Amino acid sequence: MSKKSLPIVNVTLDKIVGGGQSLGTLEGGRKLFVWGGLPGETVEVQMTKKKSNLAEGVVIELITPSTERVNPRDEDSYLSTSPWQIMSFESEQHYKAALIEEAFELHDIVLPNTIEVYSDDKQYEYRNKIEFSWYWDKEKDRLDLSFFRRGTHGKIPVNGTSLAHPSINQAATALRDLLRTKPDLRAFMLKTVLVRCDAKGNVALQLYVKDQAFVQLTGSELELLKENGNIVGFELIFSNPKSPASVITERLQSWGTTNLTDTILTVPFTYAVEGFFQINIPVYEQALRDMKEWVSADKPAVDLYSGVGTIGLTIGGQSVTMVEINEHAVREMKRNITALDREKAVKAILAPSESALEYIISDATIIVDPPRAGLHEDVVKKLLETKPDRIIYLSCNPVTQARDVARLAEVYGVKYHRGYNFFPRTPHIEHLVILDRISKA
User: Fold this and answer.
1) Class of domain 94-122+280-437
2) 5-44 pLDDT tens trace
3) Backbone phi and psi for residue 377, each to the nearest 5 degrees, phi listed first
4) SS3 category, 113
5) Domain 8-69 class, CATH top level
6) Which fold has domain 129-262?
7) From CA 165, how far away is CA 169, in angstroms rounded?
């Protein structure tokens, strides 16, 4: 039995919601979450999901466009990577501030100052890491780079993305062109290619394949990549085809420099292509400078959810404990601690933050940068129990951050806050709050 196609509907969109879609209401009251539309627009929408009380869809035709609308740079693929390319950057900044405010209002928290979202005004070419999928064009009988089409399992062939540093697109197309010369190679044999560059434009990439017997690249082919793509490092990686993610099952080939180095606030960090590292370093550095203003030099710091240690090792002071659950991130963290000759002053702990509660002590400054799910409930309980004077909370999800601030409100008040546009042209928002203890109870 063939799957029943979902209907096409007309709707007027009311507002942007936290996930990044615009929201409209259909006849009968069903809410429709729409990609590719803006508040105030009347649009024709192809539904992609339909439930009893809500539906999702993608704009296929504009009936009445918004004055905020602009033409996307990546006309065919923007919905896959950066769905806010369709609005002016001024509007993007406004909506991100409004979504932060809305997240805190849901928990009856009024932030003390006007909400500012910092940007360095670089809207494109800021990403230092991109993962492409692969696509076989049957009409042209050739291999293409691709992204997944939002809301489906289909793919869109691309030549790159305007979000990426130009050296990333150059390297990805150089690899694509090389693979096109292999007559028996097809897209189904490949999983993804992960491309990363440093601030100087040096590129290292990893090609993930589905067969352990995949033929390695020759020396002359690697030299072509170096010449045509400024590629300084390459890894061929077998990734278990049963896993949808590009996990490293076995490294089949390694050539050149497969670790890159960048500085953050003058501190050098070495990281693996697949490792944890910041995507937009200049904006991240501004967040760190703002956080540093609230770190006391005479107190120890505890950095939870610390990744490779880019917070603790730059602004944490002389005595820092960093806790991270990912063993690969901790390996890189320890390598950087050694390279900086800070083994005596910095402690790296491999553990979930909720299993390292003994490090949350009253006389330390606590720094947290949790995943989108926010703070674990046991971490919140320990903070309320030990009552450190200050918590520095950087979040990639203001909704869960606001929930956590509400939990902590019996002891803590918001002293300072600021948003950051780490990912321009996307709905993603970073937000910093400084929480100071207001009760000695």
Assistant:
1) alpha beta
2) 889 999 999 999 988 999 999 988 999 999 999 999 999 9
3) -60, -35
4) coil
5) mainly beta
6) OB fold (Dihydrolipoamide Acetyltransferase, E2P) (2.40.50)
7) 7
